[in-house]
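Why does residue order matter? Because the sequence determines the fold. Keep that principle in mind as you read this record.
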Amino acid sequence: MSLAVGVLTLLFPGATALALVLFVAAWSLVTGVAEVVAAIRLRQHIQGEWLLGLSGILSIAFGILLFISPMIGAIAIAIWIGAYAWCLERYWSARPAPSLLGNAPAGDPNPGRPVPRPA
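Structure:
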């Protein structure tokens, strides 16, 4: 099945992009409705329920706009994915690299041995 979808994607990239945008639009609509319903039902139990409702309304608006103009939506989605990747790269490049050998201190000549714990 995956191979067939891959071949269809290579043969019909425009139709694949359109299908992806319409899928994101439907997902956005369903998520938005669920968020609005959750905000209404949970208003007695949570604080800031209006933010959840606002998020749902914006999600519904985004889904409608994607259905109205899917090609512009495809460009917008590509830009947002690129911006997200750029921000994520900046975030990870600013952090120290995690040690793959556990919690050995930097410069340890024998990083594979267990680190002694203070008594």
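The longest helix spans residues 13-41.
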